[in-house]
Design brief:
This protein is of the alpha/beta class. It is built from 7 helices and 10 strands. The chain starts with 14 loop residues before the first helix and ends with a strand.
Length: about 220
């Protein structure tokens, strides 16, 4: 016999408004990530990053994004000045924008998804960073803007374990000696595998940070 089922009427809700109510601003060191509904809450002494709450992933609430922002905050405290930065798998471009608000050089942001690139462009414009952050559609480093003789001082890659492992040789080749890579999208039980593969490719662990189930790795290329 077929299983019984019941139809229920679900009240119409404004999902975006609901998300806006539920997403409070996020503080990660000097960075303050907020939605337009919280524009009045931005402290004067913070680097403000406006992300529309309709795009929940990449608002800073997720352990991966928060971990990457905290890692960047520490690098800045250590006196790092990244003159060439790229955010691979940028999503909302929050990490690229954080770098662009820290240093004067233009930052690259890429994503495999065309819709994400549109979202990134919109966020860049909303933060008055047009011309400072260049958003491109690319798979990993497969784009003319990401290849060539000029290497990066800082690479963000907040994606997933599988793509991170696959791009380890390319990422290492693209990173300048002395440069840093901030990797996330890694579940805590996956972190040792990622650390091992990147060590084989010349990037050594500088710091590991766990936030709930997620790990953020800061790696350095020493030679």
């Amino acid at each position: 016999a077929e299983a019984d089922f019941v139809l229920s009427e679900v009240p119409v809700t404004d999902c975006v408004a609901h998300v806006r109510r539920d997403l409070s601003p996020v503080e990660a060191g000097r960075f303050f990530v907020y939605g337009s509904h919280d524009a009045g809450k931005v402290p004067d002494d913070r680097v403000a990053l406006l992300i529309e709450a309709a795009m929940a992933f990449g608002t800073g609430h997720h352990g991966t994004t928060l971990g990457c922002l905290r890692a960047l905050d520490r690098l800045i405290d250590e006196g790092v000045h990244a003159r060439r930065t790229v955010d691979i798998g940028c999503g909302t471009a929050v990490l690229a924008m954080a770098a662009a608000k820290t240093w004067p050089e233009t930052v690259l942001a890429s994503d495999i998804d065309a819709v994400a690139v549109e979202v990134a462009d919109a966020n860049v414009a909303a933060n008055d960073l047009a011309g400072r952050v260049t958003c491109i559609e690319a798979t990993g480093f497969d784009h003319e803007a990401l290849r060539g003789d000029s290497r990066f001082d800082l690479i963000f890659a907040n994606i997933l374990k599988g793509p991170l492992l696959a791009m380890a040789p390319e990422l290492s080749a693209a990173l300048e000696t002395g440069g840093s890579a901030i990797l996330s999208g890694i579940l805590t039980h996956q972190a040792d595998d990622v650390i091992a593969i990147y060590a084989e490719n010349g990037l050594n662990l500088a710091r590991r940070d766990d936030i709930v189930d997620w790990t953020t790795l800061t790696l350095r290329k020493y030679a």
